[in-house]
Amino acid sequence: MTTTESFPLAFDTTPSAARRADAEREAILADPGFGKHFTDHMASIAWSFDRGWHDAVVKPYGPLQLDPAASVLHYAQEIFEGLKVYRWADGSIRAFRPEANAERLQRSARRLALPELSTADFLAAIERLVAIDADWVPTAPETSLYLRPFMIASEAFLGVRAAHGVDFHVIASPAGAYFPDGVKPLSIWLSQDFSRAGRGGMGAAKTGGNYAASLLPQAEAYEQGCQQVLFLDSEERTYVEELGGMNVFFVHRDGTVVTPALGTILEGITRSSVMRLAEERGHRVEERRFTVEEWREGVESGDIVEAFACGTAAVITPIGRLKARDFEIGAPDAEPGALTMSLRDELTGIQYGRLPDHHGWMRRLA
Ligand code: PLP
Ligand code: COI
User: Fold this and answer.
1) What is the mean pLDDT of the chain?
2) How does pLDDT run across 212-231, given as a tens digit for each residue?
3) Is domain 186-351 given the CATH code 3.20.10.10 in the classification?
4) Distance 274 CA to ligand 1 centre (A)
5) Whose CA is nearest to atom 5 of ligand 2?
6) Fold designation for 12-175
């Protein structure tokens, strides 16, 4: 389904009459955590089968009104994105590769039979929201404003077909580190019983159902003293796919960097950025099938020297240990890898404006 509109939408703005006072906002920004606090406004655009995208607004943040028969509540026709906005030392506000999020939302929309939102309208929505809530972009080191664009099937209809009424919203949440312990090496739990995605499924789409499928194995991970769950391919239960909310990389002694091939995993924007940065340093980067056995043997022989997770929320975080039912790889107190930390420094350096942006990744919003 494509949209019929050919010009970027114009946004109507209704400023909030209940903006948080400066002192309250500053207290939140001093210790934002992750995903707990939200700014004063949100951006919304409506879509209908007959009118295409229309009614673009920036309005006070608040509850959605949804009919109890809205098909998202029954059939989970929903997609979302996650991207961060940074305050640079010169006071400007920049988003990291927002066009890539717009394009991934379009790919997710195709898979979930939702209407595609143009890149121009996606960017306009985040620009308008960030402009009105600019004071919510934190200034402390390693903090940012996390944007959560999402699209839901809002038509009230219980027949199982693609909805004829859809809403797109963007909300914003000041963010500190995703893992409260910061960049300490992660322990991850190998899910040997559950899969996240299968061939022909929705694994490559950023849709709530994939995360719903991850919650029970993620709860097991917590029980096992691990922070994240690792999923394997659903057919052979052999090949490493990704974590509940992050992609994974393995670094070999000879400098080769390996990451699982696309197909049933989310095509992470951090993943593609890391591949680019590693290649530019002269590392050979391989996207291919990678087994847990190869990981275990590689660590035992000294051939694999580092593993790390990456994603918007997690940035780049070292993996110290994989815990499975009958074996473990690595150790919880493993030292973070040198390449892991140096790629993290380079990526965050670009994001916070400490290093030049040779790739044109940082889009100025304000
Ligand atoms: N894989 C999953 C399942 C995710 O939820 C995320 C986070 O968005 C990623 C990978 C990494 O994607 P990105 O780097 O675009 O944030
Ligand atoms: C993100 O990194 O944006 C995600 O959606 C993953 C989730 C762990 C917050």
Assistant:
1) 96
2) 999 999 999 999 999 999 99
3) yes
4) 13
5) 82
6) D-amino Acid Aminotransferase; Chain A, domain 1 (3.30.470)
**Protein residues whose CB sits closer than 6 Å to any atom of ligand 1:** 82, 242, 245-247, 266, 268-271, 311-312
The predicted-structure confidence for 105-148, as pLDDT tens digits, reads as follows 999 999 999 999 999 999 999 999 999 999 999 999 999 999 99
CA of 35 to the centre of ligand 2 (A): 10
State in Å: Cα 165 to ligand 1 middle. Answer: 27
Q: What is the pLDDT of residue 6?
A: 63
Pocket test for ligand 1, best of 96, 179, 270 (most atoms within 8 A of CB): 270
Could you tell me the distance, in angstroms and rounded to a whole number, from the CA of residue 276 to the centre of ligand 2? 21
pLDDT mean over 225-244: 97
Ligand 2 pocket test target in 210, 246, 266 with most atoms within 8 Å of CB? 246
Domain boundaries, the chain: 12-175, 186-351
Query: Ligand 2 centroid to 148 CA: how many Å?
Result: 9
Q: What is the 3-state secondary structure (H, E, C) of the chain?
A: CCCCCCCCCCCEECCCCCCCCHHHHHHHHHCCCCCCCCCCEEEEEEEECCCEEEEEEEEECCCCCCCCCEHHHHHCCEEECCEEEEECCCCCEEEECHHHHHHHHHHHHHHCCCCCCCHHHHHHHHHHHHHHCHHHCCCCCCCEEEEEEEEEECCECCCCCCCCEEEEEEEEEEECCCCCCCCCCEEEEECCCCCCCCCCCCCCCCCHHHHHHHHHHHHHHHHCCCCEEEEECCCCCCEEEEECCCEEEEEECCCCEEEECCCCCCCCHHHHHHHHHHHHCCCCEEEECCEHHHHHHHHHHCCEEEEEEEECCCEEEEEEEEECCCCEEECCCCCCCHHHHHHHHHHHHHHCCCCCCCCCCEEECC
